[in-house]
Design a protein that fits this description.
about 200 residues, 6 helices
């Protein structure tokens, strides 16, 4: 009898310690549900074909419309088919040549001050005998230029001028014609892309 009474008291105690009867914890109607997204079934072949078409369209666009071109104005202008921020970065990467050195840059004003060592480029392009004879030649001094970067109708325009505040050690100043040649050299380094391999 004592066992029955103890078990009854124990079961009543367990029932009283059960889950609360408040409905706010049981009612899930007010909870936020994720949106229902439409499901489109596409075979692997279809998605591969679409990826291939997108890749071909991108390659065709790159071949038809170069990302960099020169305007034959006086003085000539280098044009980058990107907005100013991207054009500034692309130009910065192109200026990382061993014959160019950026001495100062200010993006807010769109200015790159660069020095150009033509003798480094000549040595790079010359043959063995030219390199051997260059020991006896006097190296020309670095020449100073200013690249001005501006945004023109969602493209980036780059112009070059001689920095009039700087002169070479012999007191001379580089010519505007030399500046135009340097801009053309920068353009060639930007437009030289490795050609895709034929399959």
């Amino acid at each position: 009898m004592k066992v029955i009474v103890k078990s009854l008291i124990l079961s009543l105690g367990l029932v009283s310690c059960g889950a609360p009867t408040e409905s706010r914890y049981r009612d899930t109607a007010m909870l936020e549900r994720p949106p229902t997204l439409p499901v489109t079934h596409q075979s692997a072949d279809q998605s591969a074909q679409e990826d291939h078409k997108l890749g071909q369209a991108k390659m065709q666009q790159e071949h038809e419309e170069p990302s960099v071109y020169m305007k034959s104005t006086t003085p000539p202008l280098l044009m980058i088919r990107q907005p100013f921020e991207l054009g500034w970065d692309i130009l910065g990467h192109a200026l990382k040549q061993d014959y160019l050195r950026v001495t100062y840059r200010e993006q807010a004003k769109g200015l790159y001050f660069i020095t150009y060592s033509p003798e480094v480029l000549e040595k790079k392009d010359s043959g063995f005998f030219d390199k051997a004879l260059s020991v006896f030649k006097e190296d020309r001094q670095e020449e100073y230029y200013v690249l001005t970067v501006t945004e023109q109708h969602l493209e980036t325009q780059v112009s070059i001028s001689v920095n009039q505040q700087k002169t070479t050690t012999d007191g001379s100043s580089p010519s505007a014609e030399d500046a135009d040649k340097l801009l053309l050299l920068i353009y060639k380094s930007m437009s030289d892309k490795p050609k895709p391999e034929k399959q």
